[in-house]
Specification:
Chain A: Pfam families: BPD_transp_1. Chain A: Belongs to the binding-protein-dependent transport system permease family. Chain A: Its main location: membrane. The complex is a heterodimer of chains A (about 290) and B (about 550). In chain A, about 75% of the residues lie in helices and about 0% in strands. With about 290 residues, chain A is an all-alpha fold. Chain A is globular. With about 550 residues, chain B is mainly α. Chain B folds into four domains: about 50 residues; about 100 residues, no CATH class; about 130 residues, no CATH class; about 220 residues, Orthogonal Bundle (MetI-like fold), CATH 1.10.3720.10. Chain B has a two-stranded antiparallel sheet with strand order 1-2. The two termini of chain B are about 60 Å apart. The chains are: A mainly alpha (about 290), B mainly alpha (about 550). Chains A and B meet through α1, α4, α5, α6 and α7 of A and α2, α19, α20, α21 and α23 of B.
Amino acid sequence: MSQMDLPPYATPGQRIWHYTFLVICGLIFFFLIAPILVIIPLSFNAEDFFTFTPKMLALDPEGYSLKHYRDFFTNPSWQQALWNSVKIAPAATVIAVTLGTLAAIGLSQDHVPFRRAIMAILISPMIVPLIISAAGMYFFYSRIGLQGTYLGVVLAHAALGIPFVIITVTATLVGFDRSLTRAAASLGANPVTTFFKVQMPLILPGVISGGLFAFITSFDEVVVVLFVGSANQQTLPWQMFTGLREQISPTILAVATILVVISIALLTTVELLRRRSERLRGLSPG
Amino acid sequence: MSDATSTGPMLAADGTPLKRSLNRALRAQKLRALMLIAPLLVFILVTFIAPITDMLFRSVENQIVSDTLPRTTRALEGWDHNSGELPSEDVFAALTYDLVAAAERKDHTRLGTRLNYETTGMSSIFRKTGRRIDDFGETYMDQFAEATPDLAAPETWVTVMADPGWRADYAAWEAARAAARETGRDFDRPPPLFRLKNGVADILPEAADVYAEFARIAQVENGDNPAEEEPWAPVYLALYRDLMHVGPGAIERLDDASRATLAPAHDAVAGFQSERLADLYLDADKGWGEPAIWSTIQAFSSNYTPGYFLASVDLRQTADGVAMQDEDRRIYIMLFERTLFMSLAIMGACILLGYPIAFLLANLPLRTSNVLLILVLLPFWTSLLVRTSSWKVLLQQQGVINDVLVWIGLVDNANRLVMINNQFGTIVAMTHILLPFMILPLYSVMKTIPPTYVRAAKSLGASNWTAFWRVYFPQSVPGIGAGCILVFILAIGYYITPELVGGTTGTFISNRIAYHISSSLNWGLAAALGSILLAVVLLLYWIYDRIVGIDNVSLG
């Protein structure tokens, strides 16, 4: 029996309001989901249009084609962009996860001086609007010669991803039973062994989902790479951005569909990890 | 218990006092925690905090005027901008020396561009004058050549001006280079940099100063030997001005070789036909006759300036103080207002759409709400560009929404709705993008509201509406607050979506910042606008921290 069920004694007015409310909610869900789903069929358009052709609406197979996908996989500039994204995002993720996990463990200790100030600094890349980060990094990285380099983009993206790692890993560590490490130590394990054998397996779900957040941050990021990168670091979002701004080509819809599929996969992974972590911590029956 | 142990301090196992032992353990623990945090802290400080600080500095930095026109800014200090008169000939002479050097280094156009931000027309004045500055002082050059033919020879100038030590060094360097060339070895040692002779700057201050500048530019910029290059015409102008001022006694103090050249020159200058520099400038560009040009240079001669910040709020700095920007150049206040207005509109739309969804999710059985939550999380996880491109596709005039409306017959095919490249497009697309950020905090607050309160209200006779409005709603206000601040913070700094669907009327202040970085190259103004935006966001974030707390930022 939930709050949303109508009691048997509801008046007609209450019934009407109840169903109106459900319809409103349905419309809002439609608003949330439809724009994402609508591009999937459009990406199979046989014409270079951004709307449904009569042939598509008649479900005529001739109205559909894979030509935009073919273009994506054969066009050198899209391939270069994909390759750049694939090179940059993992590198940024590795840096963010390694440094972020260590720092999160440090922050979760009992006695950390200036914890609030340190936390504020580490979280700041998430709070500062991207355009400001991009402007600052553009000015500063041009001064030190990192502007327009692969390394510069990786460092910038790692900085943007770190807050997510910090947040997810600290959240996992809140439920971490410290007596486990003490037990390991009392049985003669050194801190490094304790970390890898006891602590790491338990906080791994948090680390992985933090890593996924960092990955998607970099993989999706366009503002900072527009400024910090140069033509050689053109990533997939950059290519989409210029495509949308200048010569809007339907290949973008094919790329968008692929990205939607990737995000569904990532969402599923994070959700599974979250449930596993909650089950491990005994917070939910699973 | 024996007496000995009960009176002394408590001891740890190794015999040290327990207190000290505990303190040491605590210190070690703190140190370990800091060691774990340190790498990341350093990383963030270098890759993120330093750039932000750099931007803040850049918004007030203004070295370009005093760096490019060092002599002019110094000479202008004594000029009263309220007098309505042009500066003295000394200022014009200083400007000539600065400009000829700047033109050689091709710096004068950059300076013109910088000052053009403040007073329109400066850029062309500097460009035009830069083309003719080489000729300023040519009259004196010709007259000197007639009176003392020696001075037309570059070698003579080196004899008069250069430090004999430098000449010896330079000769040695040239010999080494010649030897290297003969044997075919690489030779990349730079030549010794020009040094002035001791004392010459006391007697001929301007000429020595300008000649030294000339010699260094000849060496560094062009890789030439000063002894083989004919000095710029303004060097002769400087010499003329010096010789007009010094008495014969000063010339006597020069060394023999210099005196042989300069004594006849000194005798001759009195008879030279002189020429007003101001006329030369007015001839090059009439703009120099306007005191406003000079007061701009004077107003921006300090190393730090509030000018960019003033420009960000449609004010400008004049020599008399702060004034409103000209009517047609006032855009930033309007842009800030528009950014605020649109962010508020987006926030309002997010409350309207987000509240019912969060309410529904919080009140459904867990199994159903978990499934529906995926419909909220999927947009959250989908690439921003995917969502923006789908809105671009949907809202176009030939797009899906217009097609549907025409098909239903709500809209005539001839006048399809314009829903993109205006404020409407930006608000719709951004509401869609930011809606999950409203729903998630609202949902997490609503989940904690016990259903018993509403039931109790109803059992006491409250209508459904009263129970909701007086009992449920007040308890959900913290969620609204958190969601609103989050959405507002994110909206106010948005760049991508307004850029793609905002056209000209739906853009934010961030689009202007990007424009100044990549198109107009007015980096100082971009930095100042960015600093203002940053201050607003940090203030809002501080409020958010007060209400919700940093640690409660949840990620879905």
